[in-house]
Amino acid sequence: MAPYESDDSTTTGEVDDLSSGRRKAARYVVPVAVVGVAAATIGLVPALADSGDPDLPEITAAQLIEKIGQSDVQQLSGTVKISTDLGLPDLGGLGAGFASGAMGSGSGDGSSADPSAKLTELASGTHTLRVALDGENKQKLSLLENASEYSLIHNGKDVWGYDSKSNEVFHGTAEEAKDGQAKGGQKKEDVPATPKDFAEEALKAVDDTTSVTVDGTAQIAGRDAYRLLIKPKKSGTTVGAITVAVDARTGMPLKFTLTPSSGGAAVIDAGFTQVSFAKPAASTFDFTPPKGANVTEEDELEGRAREHGSTKSEDELRKEFDKELGGLKSEDKLGKAPEGRPEVIGEGWNSVAVFDTGGEGVPSGAEVGGDMGGFLDSLGDKVTGKFGSGTVFKTRLINALVTDDGKVYVGAVDKNALVEAADSGK
Predict the structure, then answer these.
(1) What is the sign, positive or negative, of the torsion defined by CA atoms of 374, 376, 379, 383?
(2) Between 419 and 192, whose confidence is greater?
(3) Distance in angstroms (rounded) separating the CA atoms of residues 246 and 256
(4) What is the pLDDT of residues 383-413, one digit of tens each?
(5) 325 vs 321: CA distance, rounded Å
(6) How far apart are CA 191 and CA 188, in angstroms?
(7) pLDDT-based confidence at 272, cuts 50/70/90?
(8) What's the whole-model pTM score?
(9) In what order do the strands lie in the sheet with 294-297?
């Protein structure tokens, strides 16, 4: 079906409407992946549950964003397919070994049921998730594996993680939300985990550097939906386009697709294959540690971290990280950044964050020598400019330039944009 709006530009008035809509949308995040999750960016297999072009009433982009903002889905259950294609190099067994060591086996320093470690597996490969939600105090996410299952359950004050393969259990606590507001001590999910979470993040980037249109309709998981198309107006960014399929009835995003400017398969394609908005059974959120399971309390993990040199809790480290990145705004320009925050060069989708490590850059393959030297050279591209020289490390979405004098330039931009940013900083 042809787009309802084919104009690639967005007027000032529309930008104001879109900004207002996304502010309202930000109030309605659906917290399916629960307390304490620190997973990497995840996406869904392309070509999921997408069939037909239903005939729906015409709607503008501003109206569709407002519809997302008015959505207040509090109950659902469904199935999600997960896949990520960041174009990272294949490290063979090295990555698996590192992950295993980081998570531990119950007898070491960690727990395979710890959600902050377990859910990082979603950063690559293909996975199937089952999700359930009943208000802000009851959520469940299950990661289905070949012959096992990992579940993360939030029920009232309790947060449980269970790895059936190792028969290990993680237990943490959270203060219950009342009247739609989480109490001060409750942790929040830091990374998008559902199509709506991804959409909320994308809508924050809508400004005058962005084209926003309604690009026809689709049917997702058996439900009629509108397609919201978000595209950067300027070249230089690795983001080609973002498409959000919005349920025509509830206004809830059902699918989120991010395609790179370089073309090819989607980097992120997050969508439901099956979804119901009926109230899940109360028993869905019940959990009792199985007989013989090894149970690890959250404060035990924090205590072990202190024993190994860290004197700060996960909460304290998260707050420091949030302070470091929380003030990063597209309108910031090069100059002295607020204390504790990175400098920013550029605006909108072409923003580049600048960190000064105060140390040396990445050693060259020649300096290291041997097979390891060749491996290092294969990971990045050597570049030069007014700034000097450095190495660009690339994925299909986020790229980073590490200069030989220890500065790091990071953004969803291509190699040339990183070099230009480094040159402008001199």
Answers:
(1) negative
(2) 419
(3) 9
(4) 999 999 999 998 899 999 999 888 999 999 9
(5) 6
(6) 9
(7) very high
(8) 0.71
(9) 210-220, 223-232, 239-247, 253-260, 268-276, 75-84, 125-134, 138-144, 149-155, 158-163, 168-173, 294-297
| Order of all β-strands in the sheet with 388-394 | 343-345, 352-356, 407-411, 399-403, 388-394, 380-385
Retrieve residue 124's tokens: 């690559």
Q: How far is CA 352 from the centre of its chain?
A: 18
Q: Which two tokens stand for residue 406?
A: 């220890």
The pair of three-digit structure tokens given for residue 243, joined into one six-digit string:
């498409």
Between 211 and 359, the higher pLDDT residue: 211
**What domains, with CATH codes, occur in the chain?**
12-304 (2.50.20.10), 326-424 (3.30.310)
Q: Which amino acid is at 157?
A: K
Dist CA 402 CA 393 (whole Å): 8
Per-residue tokens: 227: 């397609």
Half-sphere exposure of 97 (CA within 13 A, CB side): 4
The secondary element (H helix, E strand) that includes residue 119 is none
Single-letter amino acid, residue 233: K
Return the amino acid letter for 407. Answer: K
Residue 344, SS3 per DSSP: strand
Most confident by average pLDDT, 94-103, 230-239, 261-270? 230-239
Residue type, 368: V
Q: Give the DSSP per-residue string, 289-302.
A: PPTT-EEEEHHHHH
pLDDT in the model for residue 64: 94
